[in-house]
Amino acid sequence: MPTSDNIARHDAPEGGASTDKTGIIVNVAVPVPLRRHFAYRVPDGYDISSLEPGMRVLVSFGRRRLTGWITAVDVPPPYDAIVIKPIDQILDDQPVLPPDIISLVQWCASYYHHPPGEAFSTAVPATLRKPQPVPVAVKKRLVCTETGQQTDIGALRKAPKQQGLLSSLRVAPNGLEKAEVAASYSNAISTGLINRGFASWTEIPEMIIPFDPATLSVQHEHMTLSGEQAAAIEAASKPGTHLLFGVTGSGKTEVYLKLIEHVLRQGQQALVLVPEIGLTPQTIERFRRRFSLPVVTMHSGMTDNERFANWQKARDGSAAIIIGTRSSIFIPLKNPGILIVDEEHDGSYKQNDGLRYSARDLAVLRGQRSGVPVVLGSATPSAESFHNATNERYQLLRLTTRPGSIQLPEQRIVDLTQHPAEGGLASPTETLMRRHLDAGNQVLVFQNRRGFSPVLMCLSCNWRAQCNQCDAQLTLHRREHRLRCHHCGSQLPEPTRCPSCNEQQLIPLGLGTERIEQHLTTRFPNHPIIRVDRDTTRRKSAFAELRAQITEGTPAILVGTQLLAKGHHFPGVTLVVIVDLDAGFYSADFKATERTAQLLTQVGGRAGREEREGTVMIQTHFPNEAMFSKLIDHGYERFLTDLFAERAAFALPPYRFIAAARAESRQPETALGFLKRSTQGINIPDVDILGPLPANMEKREGYYRAQVLFTSHQRMQLHEALTRFMHQSDELSRSGVRLSLDVDPTDNI
Fold first, then answer.
1. CATH architecture label of 657-743
2. Residues making up the binding site for Zn(2+)
3. Segments making up each domain of the chain, as ranges
4. Are 707 and 661 in contact (CB under 8 A)?
5. Binding-site annotation, residues
6. pTM for the full model?
7. NCBIfam families under this entry (predicted)?
8. Over the stretch 30-55, which tens digit does the pLDDT of each residue have?
9. Fold of domain 410-453+510-633
């Protein structure tokens, strides 16, 4: 944890600033790429008793003025300080961040070896990074003007709705909220009053007060809890970390809702983390139907103002339930009652740039520190979480069946060596699809690759469309007639002739969702084809519109990537087709097999979630692959048991801790040389250093990448080695080199 021992001294600012070292000194986390805090002097005459950690300050740093965070007050001056600059401006009159969030961010900076100032910038809304006072929350309200109060209301007898709205406004001193007006009157009615000068929109400061648990009403769903659900609810209502391991469709969300109801009745808040923005509309809808208290969301699709308003409501206690994606783990709660991480295995909980934190792991830490229950839910728990549960660090709670008479789907293997696929689908697969569609059901076709095809090749000279910035091939997006790199985003027009030999023998190889959609359109012309991937859901409301179309239940074929695999409930889907997961069996990434098993189980779990029976068709060139027999015959837990044996044999997580240091440069030898010099002389017991070696994809976005792995059985020794490494790298010139450190990496090692 950063202390006053690693506070840097400041060089004297230009203009002959005072060298006074007297007065009160505070530690400030400044958003610069240096892993230390900085000492600043409190301005003369400022009441020190009102200065607290968590307040923002404007400080001079070199030639810049930056917004920093006070982390400690009245500290001794650094021993080597020549000049201690004064704070330029104190932006807040009270702490913006509470002590528990300050401590959490400080822990992150220490554990992930990240600059503390940049860690604070990651943890707060963009609004708080600006050098300005905290904005006052306001609500837009329609108010009656003086003219509206004095006018003869009878003059509006020919416009009865305007007359009614004006009557309501006259007796509402603070006006009516936008939602209240919209509930009874159209925009044309309110606009009519405004145009007459009888009303106007105004912004009125919003009073944020904690929600009142006495006003809670609950709309219970018509279902009977299973014995396993009841036992899970009782156990998970107690402090501690609980792994809720429930098969797909087993009612994990109902367990969440019951647990949340319990904490709401005590006046406490619930924080629910979900992996994808696309999951939030369905989840929010169910939570809002269930509870009368305020539910707010936090995700990247919101504006800065929307995010900050909801952040304030969570901090000040007016929001009862907060549903958000990864960064929501840093939201302050006035009275936390429970932390829930849905689909805890999902890779999107790990930040892969900047502060490379795991929101799931931080939820566990935050729950331990605040003494509230933490529930990690999944049908396919991560190896790390299940290992912690089997070793009793977490409590393991099981949901082994679906509610009532609903059965898990039947799983079938289609051998593509015996039944070649056309357009991605084998003949037995298409036959079964027709049968399910004719019965009035829906079919989900899963391919975890967007675009038309991953390769565009010339039959004449074997040329392939390659990204100039990455060691990757360009993906053909035929509808847009573009070649796109899915790694760096670069794109080119689709060529009509080979750029190498000028022949017109270019053919697409491989399957993406767009190509499968095209094939299905010709083979099933009488059924709608609904494609769900990142290309079709770029618009803000696109996913909600597609989901509404799906939930209508009319016979249709859904084609999509993992956006369709994560926790969705599509009642009409009775058949799931998995086009191709074979690549996951032979990846260099040690996590690939685990992720493939999770995808197969999660996607298959979309089938037969109501009373109708479900089927999963798995197409593969490797029908004898051991994973299939483990998952189909024995289930996901048996798969994990065998996976643990492999991980233990090869000294991989969860049996060994790992960190990856990565360097990038325009020249390949520069990155490798930098890592080699940074690791010289590091010899810590029980720490192995592997590399440096080129990364699996050596060139990306124009940079050549190299990495070195640190592994150990003990976290303490691992972090000792990482501290040495970062110190040595700081001593070297980083000209032309970008360095990152990933503690507990989840991929690409």
1. 2-Layer Sandwich (3.30)
2. 458, 461, 467, 470, 485, 488, 498, 501
3. 4-129, 138-205, 213-399, 410-453+510-633, 657-743
4. yes
5. 458, 461, 467, 470, 485, 488, 498, 501
6. 0.85
7. priA, PRK05580.1-4
8. 999 999 999 998 988 787 888 899 99
9. Rossmann fold (3.40.50)
